[in-house]
Amino acid sequence: MTMTPLEQLMSEMEGYKSWATDKIAEGLAPVHDEVQRATERLDAAMKGLDEWRRSQLIKMDSSGRLIVREGKFAGLGFLELAIVEHVLRHRSTSRPTLVQQTTIAELDVARNQLAQSFNFDSAFEWEEHCLKQLRVVRETQDMESASRFRNSLTEWRSLMIRAVQKAMDSTTSGAGDELVPTLEAAQLWMDVNLEARVLPLFTQSPMPSNPFDIGTQIGDVNWYPTTENVQSTTTTPTTAKTTLTAYGLKAGIPFSDELSEDAVIAMAAELRSTLARNASEVIDDVILNGDTTVLNGINSDGVTIGTDTAGKAQWLLGFDGLIHLPLIDNTSQAKAHSSTPTAAMFNNNDIKLGKYTAPGRRGDVVHISDINTHIASRIITEVLTVDKMGPRATISSGELASVFGTPYIMSEQMKLADTDGKVTDSGGNTTGRVLTLNTTQWRIGIMRPITFEADREPGKSQTTLYTSMRIALTERSGTRSSASHTALQYDISSVT
Description:
alpha+beta, six-stranded mixed sheet, four-stranded mixed sheet, 14 helices, globular
């Protein structure tokens, strides 16, 4: 039977005691090599015991999150601890009577235990947990998207492994400090992807600099017949690049002075889930609806908005989103459907995509619509009944997961619009839209994942936790006015 590290240590010590007793009985002093070997074995056993003790305090939950097992911070992971730390540590400086110093010390211990329990195996385990969880969340969608998502997931796993390696290789006491932020960022990034509907469809690249250049597709290569002993003709491929430029978003959550430290700790899990949900919503929103136009924008037709306009300022982030391309940049990629939902509206978008929806690329194509249009599309004749659709008929399954083999998802961030495809600010938006795109032709950059900072506001007797991020979006052809990888059907009636 396998011994626990504690039992192994006790066995080693018992053996050492017996060995020393025999030496004394024989009147012999242990030689240097014998003492050194015994010391090394005991040191190894003690190290194993320390690791075992940490493992008893830490566990990984079903989503791959490392969480504290017991004590004041039991059940909290890196993100919850980060939220608590930023609020309480700032309060302990500005209003020391609100926070006990023992709490800050215990928090540091919990964070260190989490960091010390994370190793190379943990990084791979986290990656597999996340991919499995994404599949469960996206079980009605195309699994090709999960396969593409693995590439982005692998990049984050590599970042964590490098942070672990750096912490292990360093001899300074604070070397592990860089590991904690990396683990916090990776976990929150995963939480946001699990909540989002649009974000995980795309390749996401951590940006080492801002701006950051990425290569676009290499041009076609020419092929020639070969002749023995004759140098083959070669092709100089055309290359190009496109630039990811990140822009920032920030939000603040205030905490009143009357809120005790225990209440802040208890709220941490709820705050974490709220932040992930809100961040996923705003990221999906700007990816779909980003528009740098302040007057008569695609989401605010008929009014001027500014960077301080509540609920709308995020559209002015700095880049134009997916819908902007067919509706404004290349209007030949948009068409007024002017009818109730039909199979033809999806097919017309496929036609506009041309080579980008050809066999072999289909797994990269996705339909996205507002909720109303998705619901109304369930009664399209071709998908409604069992005799037309078989067991996947919407009348029995209740869902429309794909059309013509292309995944079909709905997003709350895609709104009903006016008959011109824009969302009128004064209301009256009653028609639907369907966006079809090849996801390989868009790239999302992550310059800075969500981070936290606290600020004391004495005039309000409160501490505000600010959360911010910096993201980028670019289409890969480099010329939006002629890009044909994204298409839009609008003015879809009978959806309300």
